[in-house]
Amino acid sequence: MLKNQLSILLVILLGVSSLPAIAVENDLGLWTPLWITIPFNKRINALLEISPRNQDNVTKFDQLFIRPSVNYHLNKYLTLTQGYSWNPRFNPSINENRIWEQLQLNNHFSKFNLENRFRLEEIFTKGVGGHPVRGRYRLGTWIPIDKKKMWSFVLWDEFWFYFNSVSNGPSNGYDRNWLFAGLNRKISENVSLEGGYMFQHINNMSPKNDLLNHVILVNLYVTLPQIIRK
Question: Is the pLDDT of residue 105 over 70?
Answer without folding.
Answer: yes
